[in-house]
Amino acid sequence: MSVVEPGTPAPDFKLRREDYRRFTREDLLGRTTVLVFYPFAFSAVCTDQLNLYEEVLDQFAAQGATLYGVSCDSTEAQRAFKEKLGITIEQLSDWEPKGATCRAFGVYFEKGGMPTRALVMIGPDGVVQWSWEGEHPGVLPGANLIFDALAAR
Amino acid sequence: MSDLGSAPVPPLAPDDHVRGEGSDAPRVVYADYECPYCAVLCHRLAGTGERWVFRHFPVKSKHPRAWAAACAAEAAGLQGRFWEMHDALLADQGRLEDPHLWARAAALGLDVDRFDADRRSDAVAARVQRDFESGIRAGVVTTPTAFGDGTMQAGPDAALS
What we know:
The structure holds 2 protein chains of 2 kinds. Chain A is of the alpha/beta class. Helix content of chain A is 28%, strand content 25%.
């Protein structure tokens, strides 16, 4: 399994927002979305990655892109994680059925019971514009990769 | 340029902060004054005596006083005391509030009023932002990150292996 390729329509999926509402494919339409899949809340590497994106969130927004963090952690754990980091990036939970959305996007690591570290940018038409997946969870994608992808649209 | 970088690390600029003797192609370290791993790396680098470059990479959401500390170092630099302030900041990362910055400036014999105006100035902010942006382009995600010999290494042991 590997991450969805550019040009592919985003799959149907259901994630849970921080306020427990559903976040589905419909929510992608009409704007550019970057889904930031990360292995686990509270792991050190994820912390660095999301803190860095937070620093340049206004630059992403200026280019019309909205970022979301996605993991298989529960909504409660994600909220606590977000509060600990001091970030505003909304978190989406793939807790139940666990990993279903990650599988649909091709980023679920079965052995670890977690998403791989991956980025998926979806255009306003619901089609994947760009995707990236790390060779292993320790590989950190900088904000530059997202800026490059936004510039290449 | 690293595999995950979008642009090479910018070459040495006249106003870069360079320390030590030797190499024409010194290591370039992106770091944050509130980051304990950065303090460890900078201390170790000082011990080696090698020539290296410090560039700012303050991550505010992780380290709320990192940006203010970076600006304080730059403001001290405008009075010729960048490295003294750099050392003073890293030596006591638990005290980075404004009164602590003023106290350091006074202890270094700086013109404190000028220091305070400079650290809040657009020019100093732009100088810090320049480093931060170049780090982003080069693929820096975490601090400290060191570039040298065509490689990018992160963590307190970066540049020492």
